[in-house]
Specification:
Helix content is 33%, strand content 11%. With 55 residues, it is an alpha+beta fold. A hairpin with a 5-residue loop joins strand 1 and strand 2. The model has no long low-confidence stretch (mean pLDDT 78).
Length: 55
């Protein structure tokens, strides 16, 4: 008999990074933009596909 708790799938709505910043080495703040997030995701995507054994 399986006693594991079923994992519930959650829906995540749009994320709001309003006011989120990156703290620079000099202590100044740079606001996080949609473009910064998109660039980071695009940079990570090829490495995640390379490590994906299903392709």
């Amino acid at each position: 008999m399986n006693k594991e708790t079923p994992i519930k799938k959650r829906e995540i709505g749009p994320l709001n990074f309003d006011g989120a910043t990156v703290i620079n080495p000099d202590g100044s703040e740079t606001p996080i933009t949609d473009e910064m997030i998109e660039k980071a995701c695009n940079a990570l995507e090829p490495s995640s596909q390379k490590n994906d054994k299903t392709h």
